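Z., the sequence and structure:
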Amino acid sequence: MFTRRQFAASAAAIVATRARGQVQSWDGVVARANAMEQCHAIGVHHNGVAVVSQRFRGPALGAFVPIKSVSKTIVAALTGAALDRGEIPSLQATLGEIAPRLIPRGADPRVAAITVENLITMQAGLERTSGPNYGGWVSSSNWVANALSRPFVAEPGARMLYSTGSFHVLGAVLAEVSGDSLLSLARTRLGRPLGIEVPAWTRDPQGRYLGGNEMALSLPAMVRFGEMYRQGGMWNGQRVLSAAWVAASQRAVTRSPFSGLAYGYGWFLGRAGGTDYALARGYGGQVICIAPDLGLTVAITSDPTRPARSGGYFGDLMGLIEDAILPVARQERS
């Protein structure tokens, strides 16, 4: 027989289980995000309509904020734009074929065979420039040469080695093949059609804009970028990126050894409750998430000075997306 205390505990457990299973409202999403002290702001568009646009702390909604490694997803988009224009013949084009001037003297002969796909999926095989190696890399006199002179720790294409250096090399390749700076490419090929501003950001000692970090956008601009991808490369009736590129970007090529998420071309890829989603992720908890099947785009900005690990704040953000935002979008769709 149940004691009164056991009965109360059992009833409480049932209520808690039901509450977790219940679909929240957009107000509930806002309340949950606000409870995360690192979260600065959130924007959600559902079926093209802004359903959440809320600042909790930090800069104003329209202010430029550091997007950290979401910059990698921007550079990936610019890679798609270069492919669409024929400036890069294919993702299998090698450094030796399209940007031989970037290869430093004395580099391992395998460097010339690194492909654009190896760079955009961070499978170049070279020792990482991120993590504990980041400070030494950005203190070097030539960031491209330093990244390409590092020892091979894996064969190109074998596994993902998260490295901003790979995206910086990719950004340098885009500048080489287009004859224009990465800043100019971002402004003309993304900023102009999306109607967003792209401020100048960090450059290396050779004057190349850093590929893969330190860019800044406003939260509404992050939403527009995500909405463009959600809509297959379209924005306001104008094609920004080819549908083929957008689809290819959201197919798994490799997998992150840290989060366990699959990775395509600049996007981490997950699935929750039967819904596929793509995620751009930056240090501190900067996020753009799209779930095209639900007509959903989410942008989140956070304190850029504090880490957001998979077992900590980033895990909380994943819970917000998977357990709150996606269920509300499903409910609103039905």
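Confidence is low (pLDDT under 50) at residues 1-21. DSSP finds twelve helices and twelve strands in the chain.

Let me know what you think.
H.
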